[in-house]
Amino acid sequence: MARRSGDPSYVSNEALRGMCENVVHLLTTTVEKMEDILWPSILDCLLDENLTPAISAVCKSLTVLASKKRNELGLDFTIDYGSLLKVSSPQSLLARLLVVIGRPFEDRDRGLHVLKFMKAVTPAIHKGPVSVWDKDIPTLIQYLESFDSTDWDQKQWENKVTDFVTETLAHIDREDWIVSYGKALLSQFNLYSNLPDDKYVLLINLGLVIRKVANKTFLNEALDTIFLNVNHSNPTERLGCALAVGLCGSSFADLVLVKLENVAKDFKKNAGLFGFIREFTGDSDHEKLKATIILCYGHITINTPIQQISPRIETPILRCVATLYSSSKDPNVKQSMLETIKLIADAVHSGQHKKQCLDELRSRLELLGLMRTILKSETSQPLTSNVRSLALNASASLVSLDPALKEEDKRNIIQVAVGSVYSLPRDFLHEKPKEEGIDPTLDFDKLLISTVDALNFFLQKLVLKERTFTNLESILQILHKWMVSKNAVERERCLHSTLHILRAYAEASESDSYIPFNTLGNILGMLVPRCTDPQVTVRHLAFDSIDVAVAMAMRIQVSSVSFNEKPELSLNYLKSQIISDDPSSLFIVTKSLGKYICEKLPLDQLYPFLRCLVNGLCDPHSQSSSGASVVLNTVVKHRGRELRVEIPNIIEAVRDILNSVQCPHTRKGALRCFQNLANHHLTAVLVSLLNSPVPLDVVTDLKLNSTEDLLCMGPVAA
């Protein structure tokens, strides 16, 4: 209704709707004898497709009328379904009600009003679930009233509704009645032709029915009807179909697998039932149907007991998935395939964990190879879909399986996975013109966050699969390439990953018996240069990572690492001071960091730390390499006495790397390391230098520093 300026009689459609709802409610609650007119004929409004948006108003009135009947008649409350045109059976009424509560905030909070009506009308539907509905419905109502649509967790609600429906069917416990309920659901697909969210709920309910009964005739009828009525181009309906078929498979795995193969064959012939689907979806190639079938295989695998489904995973499940995937270039098919691989791997992992599935997934390496291929192909593409995150999640599930990956396989998958994510720009869509074909509705920020999270989850699974400090260090060594990248975004994301997997490892090993952290030195040696990174965010992440690593070594809570320390040596204090780019300020903080590490580093980790830190002198960022040299000298100055045996190795390492050091300040700092070592072990240092190749490749630097009497004078400030 168009607004007319200055028209005092104008009423908006929304206002008119509200007035009509109020009139119906007033008629129900205040006008005498209206009960005989409205009850039970108003029930038919529930199954009127055009009145779906008015279900809240209808149920408000029905609740008043049904409550009166329930109070008067108690469990003898009945409905004369024969007198109604649409609600012709208790099953048809129940089918409608259990679907519309699935999306409770639609159409003016319909969930609350439908649940209140259900509580009142229970005996007129079936006596069996009266007790459970009287107990559970108030709980569901209270749950809805404690939320609003802004902080709503739809998945959690779906789980509650699924449990409620399952318990309802268990209390009815009559197969003929439940089959009739299932047929009522099948007959109501037309009510949700343009409502994919509601159709999704209907499909879940159908799956619960089929799982409950043993009627194979109904199973076949239901599956045919499901595939015929699902819009396979709609992701929500596709998922609902797959979930329903998966629930069916939990009771009839072999029958459902045969059915899916027949669907695929019928699809190839482009005949029979699926000829109608082409007309329904308008998709002559049926690519979206392929995506649905593939997703069904995944949900069958995850829902069926692993002992039963395990022999069928390689054949026919993975074989059929591979056939459908290889014959399609549709992105929906690829996405379904990735989701299915994850579900299959999760099912196998669950069986291995419970010792119910002793066989390994024979095709795991082949599947990981496919994940690498997909991720590699995505690396050169803009982030416009969730393919990366799906492939990473599938990879995470695959690497969790027994046996653990070999080192080479681990390195290969990490390098490709990280390479496909770390280099993604923060704001790609903001930089690219619209004419490049990017969907303007795409939520790039959300997609980027989910992709980075998926990568970190994948790395976490790799770390926790072999919970050893050697494996932890090995993975961080692979990441080190990006830790020192010239791209600030890559360094920041790499440090986020580092902190994430360190925290995950620390949390997972809290209850383990104490094991010495035998790679602490190498890990701290990789992290220290990042504490003076050009990017402040990277510095903070590096400090937090050191905090977690030291806490693991000391087997105390992270928040207690700096407890009882001098304030100037607290990591939290140093982290707060590291925001300045002033060289003198950075020098002071870095020197304090060196003192902190001196106090925390066990003797057996001292040389590994210094040896790794020497590599930091070649860091491509002069600020970082300079910081590494300051920490190197601070540690040598304070704990050099403990390094007698390693003097030749340290001197050789520093000499070998000097030619690669680019920053002049770092070169001078590296040479000061000789002096600081000589202050503790003069003879050993001289012998090592004299035994070095002649002429010394560092002679120029020695001359430049001759005024400091490098080896013979007293200590020089590190």
Which bin fits the share of residues in helices? 55-70%
Give the terminus-to-terminus CA distance. 80 Å
**Largest sheet features:** none
Name the assembly state: single chain
Overall form: elongated
What share of residues are in beta strands?
Answer: under 5%
- CA gyration radius, whole angstroms: 34 Å
Helix-and-strand structural type: mainly alpha
* Quantity of strands, as a count: 0
Q: What's the average pLDDT?
A: 88
Low-confidence stretches: 559-564, 698-718
Note the total helix count.
32
Characterization of this structure:
It is a single chain. It is built from 32 helices and no strands. With 718 residues, the protein is mainly alpha-helical. α9 (196-212) crosses α11 (235-269) and α10 packs parallel to α12. It is elongated. The termini are far apart. Residues 559-564 and 698-718 have low confidence and may be disordered.
Give the SSE map.
Elements: H1 13-30, H2 34-38, H3 55-73, H4 90-100, H5 106-125, H6 130-145, H7 154-172, H8 175-187, H9 196-212, H10 216-229, H11 235-269, H12 273-281, H13 287-303, H14 306-309, H15 313-326, H16 331-353, H17 364-379, H18 387-399, H19 407-419, H20 428-431, H21 444-465, H22 469-483, H23 488-508, H24 520-527, H25 536-554, H26 571-577, H27 583-600, H28 606-615, H29 622-639, H30 647-658, H31 664-690, H32 699-704
Please sum up the structure shown.
This protein is an all-alpha fold and about 725 residues long. The protein has helices at about 15-30, 35-40, 55-75, 90-100, 105-125, 130-145, 155-170, 175-185, 195-210, 215-230, 235-270, 275-280, 285-305, 305-310, 315-325, 330-355, 365-380, 385-400, 405-420, 430, 445-465, 470-485, 490-510, 520-525, 535-555, 570-575, 585-600, 605-615, 620-640, 645-660, 665-690, 700-705. It is about 65% helix and about 0% strand.
